[in-house]
Amino acid sequence: MAHAHPHPHPSGQDGPGSPGSHDGHRPHGGHSHAHSDDSAEGQAEILDLDAEVLAEHLAAVTRWLPTATPPRRIVDLGCGTGAGTFALLDRFPEADVTAVDSSAAHLQRLRDKAIARGVDERVRTVQADLDDAVWPDLGAPDLVWASASMHHMADPDRALRAVHDALPPGGLFAVLELAGFPRFLPENAPEERPGLEERCHAASERYHVEHVPHRGADWGPKLAAAGFAVEAERALTVNIDGSRDAAVGAYALGSLRRLRGTVADGLAAEDLAALDRLLDTDGPHSILRRDDLEVRTERTVWAARRGA
Question: Is the peptide bond preceding residue 190 cis, with omega within 30 degrees of 0?
Fold first, then answer.
């Protein structure tokens, strides 16, 4: 199962998400030959960068949730390295979170963070593949959170029904999904190949239509079909100025490295060469040398309630 993520990331992070995902990021600096690093460590680093760069956005989503009574038992499905888990712990200081992911390495990283933050007694981790027909016992949660993870499910309709059955009457299910990979460059960049990023995105969309068909889906009707009442839906536009934030450069680097692994076969040779120049951290055209980066992305959140 996948974890959260904004952006193309196998294993949950489709974002750079992931990314990303939740469906949901990348290594900091060092020499790069512009090839995608799909190691658990590389993926974990980009998930952590995603959490750092989009922290305020994630906190705003947790504040928006329609929780008349603060939840005490929360499940984070496809938790990755813990972006949602820790945002929820901050938002609901009396709550405990069960964090579920298929990656043992990501769960260990999450546990280490929980210990460092002094909240380890409030976190339980469960390693599970949520594409399996039988799910582990997730207790009796008041709130289930799934960020950039649902679109990675082999059978998302079955997964939605499983969440419905796990929640008590009145329980809340929050689904946060991304429209696609984040953008980082101005339209006229790079100077020798203007519009490169949009062409990369077009190639990525062609890939994802075939390999990740549920990315960008309207989850409202799917939630209703699974027995939920959708109480609220909100489209979120993220636009973060990266000129004074080194984490944005690292995030862009890692995200575009991962994107390269998806789109290399679909790009013209000139575009691939220009992308590789951006990803060569030792070269003069490195994306880390740019002072005009932004994080531009769109996400949608649905809040759905299980009826009596």
Answer: yes
